[in-house]
Amino acid sequence: MKTNFIKNALRILLGAIMTLAGIGHLTFQREEFLAQVPRWLPTDPTFMDFVVLSSGIVEITLGLLMIFLFKHKAKVGIALALFYILIFPGNISQYTNGIDAFGLDTDQKRLIRLFFQPVLVIWALWSTGGWKFLISKLKK
Predict the structure, then answer these.
(1) What is the four-CA torsion angle of 28, 44, 41, 120, rounded to 10 degrees?
(2) Helix or strand or coil: residue 100?
(3) Is the dihedral of CA 124, 59, 88, 26 positive or negative?
(4) What is the rounded CA–CA span in Å between residue 4 and residue 12?
(5) Global confidence as pTM
(6) I want to staple 63 with a disulfide (CB 3.0 to 4.6 A). Which of 18, 43, 124, 133 is the partner?
(7) Which of 49, 124, 41 is nearest to 85 (CA)?
(8) 3-state secondary structure (DSSP) of residue 115
């Protein structure tokens, strides 16, 4: 899928953001990301830390693929969009359980954040040509 300069710039920006977020999972924001682990999962600290670390590795991988695997950017964008959908229950859990993290210290802030997840899904699909790729595959 061919994309223009703006889409490519936003794809690279999203990749950089994802890479930084993934590094944060493994290092300086590890405690904050523990708040994102859904409370319906086992709350054993070792398991929760595994979830944070493994999702960080996935984020770094997807971030770097967004930046460097431009030949397959549509497929990477779809994978990133799916990842955003899969981690959304963590955001819902943070809201429903009133867990403070990342400066989200009120129910209103946590609720507003929920509306940004679809923006990330759209950004991943739009900036990579993932929308057009999916539509072309569905038409076949």
Answers:
(1) 0
(2) coil
(3) negative
(4) 12
(5) 0.94
(6) 18
(7) 124
(8) coil
Question: What tokens appear for 43 in the block?
Answer: 């709350």
Residue closest to 132 by CA, chosen among 77, 94, 67? 77
Which parts of the chain register pLDDT below 50? none
- The residues facing 63 across adjacent strands are none
CA distance 51 to 48: 5
pLDDT tens-place string over residues 74-110: 999 999 999 999 999 999 999 999 999 999 999 999 9
Q: How many CB atoms lie within 10 A of CB 114?
A: 13
CB 80 within 8 A of CB 61: no
What are the tokens at 64?
A: 């770097």
Q: Collapse the DSSP code of 104 into the 3-class scheme (helix H, G, I; strand E, B; otherwise coil) and give the result.
A: strand
